[in-house]
Amino acid sequence: MPVARPESSDSRVIAHVDMDCFYVQVEQRKQPSLRGQPAAVVQYNSWQGGGLIAVSYEARKFGVKRSMRGDEAKQVCPEIHLVQVPVARGKADLNSYRNAGSEVVTILSRRGRCERASIDEVYLDLTIAAEAMLADNPPECLETISEEAVKSHVLGLEVGTNPRENVRHWLTRSDASRRDKLLACGALIVAELRLQVLEETEFTCSAGIAHNKMLAKLASGMNKPAQQTLVPFSSISKLLETLPIKKMKQLGGKLGTSLQIDLGVNTVGDLLQFSEEKLQEYYGLNTGSWLWNTARGISGEEVKERLLPNSHGSGKTFPGPRALKTVASVEKWLSELCEELSERLQSDLEQNKRIAHTLTLHAQAHKSNDADSFKKFPSKSCPLRYETAKIKEDALSLFQAGLREYLGQYNVKTSGNKNCGWGITGLSVSASKIVAIPSGTRSIMNYFQNQEETYPQVKLSSEKLIQDAPLLSPSENCLGCGGHPTLQSTEQLARHEEDKETKRCIEEEDKEMCKEKGFLLSPEQLPDKETLICSSPDAEVYPKWEKEYPRWEKDQTESSGVSLTEKSRDTFESEEGKRKSNKEKGMQTISRYFQSQNSGSLIQIEHASTTNLSESSSLSGPHGEQPQENSLTRGESSVDARLCSQFKRPAWSYDIDEIDQDVLKELPKQIQEEVHAWLRPQKRSNTVKRDLGITRYFLPSKDK
DNA sequence: ACGGTTTACACC
DNA sequence: TGGTGTAAA
Q1: Which segments carry the region annotation Disordered (predicted)?
Q2: Do the bridges between strand A39-43 and strand A81-84 make them parallel or antiparallel, or are there none, so unpaired?
Q3: Is the CB of residue A320 inside 7 Å of nucleic acid strand B?
Q4: Which positions on chain B have an atom < 7 Å from some protein CB?
Q5: Strand B within 7 Å of which CB atoms in A 259-318?
Q6: DSSP labels, A379-426
Q7: For residue A424, is pLDDT > 60?
Q8: What CA–CA distance (Å, rounded) separates A609 from A592?
Q9: Which residues are A608's β-sheet partners?
Q10: A20-87 — its CATH code?
Q11: Which nucleotide minimizes the distance between its C1' and the CA of A1?
Q12: Which CATH architecture has domain A97-294?
């Protein structure tokens, strides 16, 4: 519940812009013959014509509604055009809509702070722009007002027989209050923006303009499609007086129902009878105050500057009889979901230079057979590793951890076979804690690169696979090493056996899906390559560091390592036998990365199949029981052994004060700051300790 | 046994 | 904190 700032003198200019039946418009643009037609977007044509998720206004006239089935829609509107949502990997693929939404956001963010509220809605804070307009070129001085602006609806304005003229008059009154004038400026700006959206994207939208988000949102829905509505201060009380409580954002659910049932509040106006204390008594301090303010049209919630989503998710439901009954089928679907997620993470990285740090798995399950069937399947999360195969692996581990918890201690080992009584009715994976790569991250990499220029390139041979993991997440590649044990060969063999079982199960369960090629999760069919694309770095950042290189280089060459580091390295190298020195290896990857970066606007880093690298879960349980190898296989950046000794673990497991300040001080100032920047948002996972072995190895005193 | 799929956020 | 619940589109 947003906290209401007590700020009754709110003269901000806030707009809420809402795309009209957005998915339909996206399809109409793609297929212009659909324009002006009754149309709807459906997903999963399979059952009863699929479910409608967006309906054109033409179709709404026939009584077609969202939440109808395709078949129903055809009954009430035989002419309706049903367009299917794109499908990829056996599930709805919303990317075309996301991309279209981005187009719109780009345009709408031109005139002020812009908050992407959903795939098809934004809030704008136009206060500054409106004030500027009022100062320089107020509406009252304009001889013409845009056609789109005079089509506005002004709540509380009596428009009579000539609405345009009356609105024009309202917008240009010289005797209006400052608030109303600001709102008028907002209306002109929004009208202009909406026109730009139409010209540049062919999409129409509706908007509300008010003094806060709550009222702007309310207004944007009042005159659709392709219109805008203003909420002058003087209209607020009358507007809310009769407004059904459930129409208010945040009150459409249980809280609104409680208000109705428990307090007999049916309109927002009814709320006015209750003192703030009374509301707090019922609903707590925050919600109580929020309700009290809401009743008065007061909302201090700020428009946040956010153009991009804070998380990415990919999920699917498996209702009723379609519930997943085997780990194998769960693994198959997780694989699909993870591939989509990974793809989107790659896009985000390329387009926005952002990295997600947390992977979360959600599932819904039912236990047909059992006592405590009310228990919910627990969500689990862990640090996110940027590689499709790793994401799959980790998601499966999280699932298995969740499943064990869900089933309780007595879970029979069911490696891929028909289980005892559970079914998975929903699966989703999501990536969160997305942070922009600090501008300096590119510079720190430049720094490393320059570091390497003193080293000759060494031809790679068989270790290539390991070394060419993507150099992206600092926790994964530059600083952090290990933390994600790879599997040893015995287990790999075991896994191959399990793959066969997996195949068998899948064939049994989802025949039609299995016909798709590349669908099974056998090693042979996994993609043998992944591509990573990054833009080139800003060139200007690193020259000023040049003077500091010699120092760094010296440290590196003379580094003999700190005890813990050496221990791990020895362990690792003895296991890996014929690896090159860490130094060479790290240099190889890093320099490759930057060579490519330097070469042009776009680079591609290929890294080979992961099937022979990463395997299965490292969690306790069926897999976890196996002796685990301490595999610091990758990310041995070898820049400086002393640095490495400090940053052996994945970045998320550090405390700032655990790091030897002397070592840190060896680094240039900017780098020190960046190290802090990396460590700050990242905290130790306390859910699934996939890195117990390694952590224990390095931190006997602090970690258990 | 569900419109399905995503996102955000408050709470503890 | 991460995990859960609520709300919305």
Answers
A1: 553-588, 605-639
A2: parallel
A3: yes
A4: 1-12
A5: 284, 286-287, 304, 306, 309-317
A6: PEEEE--SSHHHHHHHHHHHHHHHHHHHH-S-----SSS--SSEEEEE
A7: yes
A8: 18
A9: A529
A10: 3.40.1170.60
A11: B10
A12: 2-Layer Sandwich (3.30)
**What CA–CA distance (Å, rounded) separates A331 from A310?**
26
Cβ A674 vs Cβ A441: under 8 Å: yes
pLDDT of residue A445 exceeding 70: no
Cα separation of A276 and A579, whole Å?
69
Domain ranges in chain A?
A: 20-87, 97-294, 310-409+421-432
- Residue A96: name the closest of A29, A39, A44 by CA: A29
Q: Is the dihedral of CA A390, A393, A395, A401 positive or negative?
A: negative
Please give the backbone phi and psi of residue A698, each rounded to the nearest 5 degrees, phi first: -95, -20
CATH superfamily ID and name for A310-409+421-432: DNA polymerase, Y-family, little finger domain (3.30.1490.100)
Residues near chain C strand, CB within 7 A? A 18, 118-121, 217, 221, 248-256, 358, 360, 376, 378-381, 683, 685-688
Distance of CA A671 to the CA centre of its chain: 28
Catalytic residues of A: 121
pLDDT at A371: 66
Q: What pLDDT, in 10s, does the model give residues A556-571?
A: 222 322 222 222 322 2
Q: Token pair of A55, please?
A: 């309906």
Using an 8 Å Cβ cutoff, are A643 and A663 in contact? yes
C1' nearest to CA of A315: which nucleotide? B5
What is the pLDDT, as a whole number, of residue A406?
86
**pLDDT tier at A15, thresholds 50, 70, 90:** very high
